[in-house]
Design brief:
Number of strands: 2
Strand order of the largest sheet: 1-2
Mean pLDDT: 85
Number of helices: 5
Low-confidence stretches: 1-12
Shape: globular
Distance between the termini: 15 Å
Radius of gyration: 12 Å
Largest sheet: 2 strands, antiparallel
Structural class: mainly alpha
Order of helices and strands: EHHHHHE
Length: about 80
């Protein structure tokens, strides 16, 4: 069964990537991104969106996952885990 993205841009539940927070934190620190505000601005998202990603309340779509990985100099596979939803 094919799923389509929600109108607000959130990924469909069957195609959600969950942020590996411990990996993210280590890479962000290496890049000097020491606050949530700096981190969110680097990825082009708001701080509340980043908080939702960190808590698992929201997953990252492909475009955001690719951007975040590139911003931190890593791969999507290293930064995100496939969520079982």
């Amino acid at each position: 069964m094919e799923t389509t993205p929600k109108p607000d841009g959130e990924s469909p539940k069957s195609d959600v990537a969950r942020l590996r927070v411990e990996v993210y934190d280590a890479l962000a620190k290496e890049k000097g991104l020491t606050t949530r505000e700096l981190q969110a601005a680097r990825h082009g998202i708001g701080r509340p969106h980043l908080s939702q990603l960190r808590s698992g309340r929201k997953g990252a779509g492909l475009a955001l996952a690719l951007r975040m990985a590139a911003d931190l100099g890593t791969t999507v596979e290293a930064l995100f885990a496939r969520s079982e939803q």
